[in-house]
Amino acid sequence: MDTGIVSVVAQTLRAESLAAGNYVFGVDVFRRSKTQFLPLLAGPVPPDYRLGAGDQLVLILTGDVELSYSLPITRQGFILIPQVGQVFVSNLTLEQLRELLYTRLGRVYSGVKRGTEATTRFDVSVANVRANQVYVIGEVVQPGAYQISALGTALTALYAAGGVTARANMRHIEVRRLDKLVDSLDLYDYLLRGDSRHDARLESGDVVFAPSHTTRVQITGAVVRPAIYDVRVSEGLAELLQAAGGFRPDAARRRIAIFRILPPAEQPPGPAPRTVLDVALAPAAASPAPAARRPDEGDPTGGVVIPAVALQDGDSVVVDSLPPLADVYHVGIAGMVERPGQYPWRPGMTLRDLLLLARGPKVGADLKEAEIARLPEDRSRGQLATTIRVPLDSTYLFQRDALGRYVGPPGLPVPATGAPEVSLEPYDNVLILKQPDWDFQRTVVISGEVRYPGTYSLRTKADRLADLIVRAGGLTSRAYSDGIRFVRAVDGVGRVNVNLARALKDTASSSNIILQPGDSIHLPEYQPAVKVSGAVNSPGSVLWQKGRSLDYYLGAAGGFSYKADKGRVSVRYANGEVRSRRRALFLSSDPQPGPGSEVFVPVRDTVGRTNWVAITSAVTGLLSSTLAILVLLKQL
User: Which of 120, 424, 497, 594 has the most other CB atoms within 10 Å of its CB?
Assistant: First the structure.
């Protein structure tokens, strides 16, 4: 039976082979693990299907009698109907069989009649179709005899044999019956146009023959489907382009090159057996009836006239692609425009045209003048470009309302009109300048104990901290200036220590720093207490007293607990600054807490405890060795 599974390993094509056209078109259609041409082995059959030995019929009688019979067709072409006898059905269609059964069944069942007077009705259908033995030979993967369904066609047989090889003639697959050619299948008709009229249904004993190819031509380059194609004698360059799917959008449709192997009689002496034919293309005239083409069909000729050029076996047709933008005449634009980049140049192109392609200037563009870098006429001194300044005006602002007024934020005053048009040359680079010192508003945030907290926009790039405090209405009576928290977001600087009292008193001091966009200033409320937390016996807050040391606040909190790490006590001040206790031998330096600060005592590491016994033993041993060495040196 035709299971539809190819017994050979599927041949896959690499992506680079597909892109370069190094494969024979149509061969890969059959390289599948499951068939796409497998006919139905059961169910309805086409009206022209002719019955034969091996088919299984079903006859159903209804009305006066209710009977159902399964009727296999014998090798001799008969079916045996109970009480009716043998009926020869070989080579009949179902319609012809129904006409015959009206006569044979009417002899036994009087109710079987044509028309509305019938009291007994019948229906006959094909339950299962037979399997035919066909032969597939020639340029196929697995030549041999195959059992395929009686509904199978030449494509079914080719698929059962693993498909054609790369040497087969895809344009002429022969179907032979009793040593006579009954039909020929052009695979291109089916693959390119969906035409299966010549996909003949096979009968038992038929031979499907795939001959070797004749004329074969390769087409590569800017076509939809580059590949190697079989070409008939009557076909030329236009038919080859149509089979390849036509030109790609980036195809250069002025000339086509055909690389040809010269015949032996024309080959000159030496290693020059090939030649190149240059085929010129001309634009096609407008079609008088464009509706004659279906909407889903493209124009394979690409709007050009393809000359009638005959092709020879071994020809290689190359369709060039349009060069990239960098290799053709182009102009560039950069700076304050919406879409900077390179654009194709055309004769008569002006600066206004280029600016329109770049979607106009950005906010902040200086429309008084632009700079154009142009290729120099003289390169004797190593010049790379010649720069010129050209005038602009407000007409280069393309976003306008219904009254013609420019829509957008204000900028530098520019002339309304009068600037002459500037013609561009190939490879010009245009720079749209930025307005001097132009920038969007810079904002800073001030919060806490000021009269008017909020988000402020800087007036100039030189605005300082004292200026912002004045704009915010100054400090309130509850503000704690030493606790100011200044955080800078630019470049991830973070917290900055600021002496606000000095900045307000002396505006020229370094403490009165210049503000940057994103700065955040917070003025906390005065808190006359010091918070003590961590490994102390009574964590809480202690009233701040001027001049009191760190030990005072630790003692007020109940002193250290048994697990306190006394050497790593730290103080966090109201402005976010952190200072830690420092001790070295007999010297110590303790930070002095201020209002609103927090004293933190960490917990010592109780897991990795110091082995003082081992340390003492080691020190003792070291001292003993040192004394012994000194005694020996004195005796010497």
Answer: 424
How close are the terminal C-alpha atoms of the chain, in Å? 113
| 8 A C-beta contact, residue 351 and residue 430 | yes
Looking at the domain assignment, is residue 252 inside a domain? yes
List the beta bridge partners of residue 279: 256
Q: Where are the alpha helices (DSSP H) in 385-528?
A: 465-471, 500-505
> Which pair of tokens denotes residue 499?
């002496």
CA distance 525 to 125: 99
Q: Which residues of 490-503 are buried (b: 16+ CB within 10 A; e: fewer)?
A: eeeeeeeebbbeeb
* Domain span at 138: 15-40+131-210
Question: 404 and 536: one domain?
Answer: no
Cα–Cα distance for residue pair 546/503, rounded to 1 Å: 24
Among all chains, which residue has been given the structure tokens 């006409």?
A: 99
Question: At residue 215, does pLDDT exceed 90?
Answer: yes
Within-domain flag for 10: no
> Is 178 in the same domain as 67?
no
pLDDT tens track for 115-161: 888 899 999 998 888 888 999 999 999 999 999 888 889 998 998 89
Helices (H) and strands (E) in the chain, counts: 10, 34
Phi, psi angles (nearest 5°) of residue 20: -90, -5
Going from the C-alpha of 414 to that of each of 354, 367, 391, 406, the distances in angstroms are: 20, 6, 10, 12
**Do 254 and 278 touch, CB atoms closer than 8 A?**
no
Mean pLDDT of 577-599: 82
The verdict on 147 and 227 lying in the same domain is no
- 555 and 460 inside one domain: no
Residue 560, number of CB atoms within 10 A of its CB? 18
555, pLDDT greater than 60: yes
152-165 pLDDT, tens digit per residue, is 899 989 988 988 99
Residue 505 sits in a domain whose CATH number is: 3.10.560.10
Q: How many residues does the chain have?
A: 636
301/287 Cα distance (integer angstroms): 13
Written as one string, the DSSP assignment of 176-234 is: EETTEEEEEE-HHHHHHH---TT-PBP-TT-EEEEPBP--EEEEEESBSS-EEEE--TT
User: Is the predicted pLDDT of residue 506 greater than 70, yes or no?
Assistant: yes
Distances (CA, A) of 408 to 151, 357, 395, 402, 404: 74, 19, 14, 14, 12
Tell which residue, 497, 458, 455, 500, has the closest CA to residue 475. Answer: 500
User: Is the pLDDT assigned to residue 378 strictly greater than 80?
Assistant: yes
Instruction: Look at residues 190, 210, 230 and tell me which one is the last residue of a structural domain.
Output: 210
Contact yes or no for 221/251 (Cβ under 8 A): yes
Report whether 413 contacts 367 (CB < 8 A). no
pLDDT given at position 636 = 67
- Within-domain flag for 535: yes
Torsion of CA 509, 512, 513, 518, to 10 degrees: 180
CB atoms closer than 10 angstroms to residue 185: 24
Distance CA 317, CA 408 (A): 55
Distance CA 541, CA 528 (A): 10
Report the number of distinct structural domains present in the chain: 6
Q: What is the mean pLDDT of residues 482-510?
A: 91
Strands (E), 39-189: 56-63, 67-72, 78-81, 85-88, 120-128, 131-138, 144-149, 173-177, 180-185
Statement to judge: residues 249 and 373 lie in one domain: no
Which range, of 202-216, 263-277, 354-368, averages the lowest pLDDT? Answer: 263-277
